[in-house]
Amino acid sequence: TIVLYDGAVPISSTFYTVYEVGSGVYNVVLNSTYKATPGTYNINVKISASEFYYANKEDVRSFTVRYRSTLISAEPVSSVPYSSSFTVILYYQDIITLDDIGNDSSLVTFEILNGSSWIFSIEWKPAFGYYQLIVETSNQPTLTVGSINVLYISMTYAYTSPFYKFDDAYVSFEIRTRASTLERQEAPVPTPYLDNITFSVYYSDADDLSPITSANIYILKGVTPLSYGTQYFYTHIADGIYEIIVQSSALDGLGVTTVTVQVDWIGGAPFHDDADIDIDLTVTRRTTNVEIVTPPSQTYYLENLTFVISFIDLETGQEIEAIKNMV
Predict the structure, then answer these.
(1) Total-model pTM
(2) Distant-in-sequence, close-in-space partners of 264: CB < 8 Å, separation ≥ 6
């Protein structure tokens, strides 16, 4: 018979089982929950035989109840727009069983161990078996575009059953420029030659959909840039909306000319991407009219008729002096 004692107090047989594995050899399986907390303990093992001629034997055995090993793992993080938040999916697991360690009872503590002044939130998602960590970067001036950064994180379980061990992990992420979009806001209309063509574009942040109010604008005809101040002009007229005026005489004459509108961020934080868009500009002939200024008077047969006509530019109302043919 084998009986276990904690000091002088016998341990309830509900906590251990004895198996005979061979002649005189026994395995004793003791449930570690017998002890309330992890630690190193001693137990007394008392062995007695049914035959009267065998002496009883007692010995002390030492055993250690350890914290349950855990593992933190994270899904890869996509590149993070400058001065924005990003999300990390974290798994906190029991290494032995691979069970997820949840936080329904608020027993898990999360920390970022490197850096300072991190603004973050973390939420246990029981339906998915992971933690959703959201980290804000706008208050971290040392995070620069193109840099590879590391979060050193830890998760700790409260000092209670089943006594999960602390674990830590590294999460890498890269800061990128903020994505931008350029859209046609107001389309250009067909415009008579020599007049200015007017249209507008909208320059915005694709990451948070906000307007971008500072930019330099360039107009290219093929690979040739037009000259700002003489061949085109632009004005910021509202949040992210820029009105552009192009002289039709700077284009390819009558018909459609495709120009590229290139909008460049002025530089510095928050590091927006440049953007461009192709826009078709249509140049038409100027509308004209012929007006009889002085009608012909009654004239005798064989005499010449005399009258005065005027060739008018209807866009300006001015007379056109250069007449190629009069038929």
Answers:
(1) 0.77
(2) 215, 216, 217, 218, 274
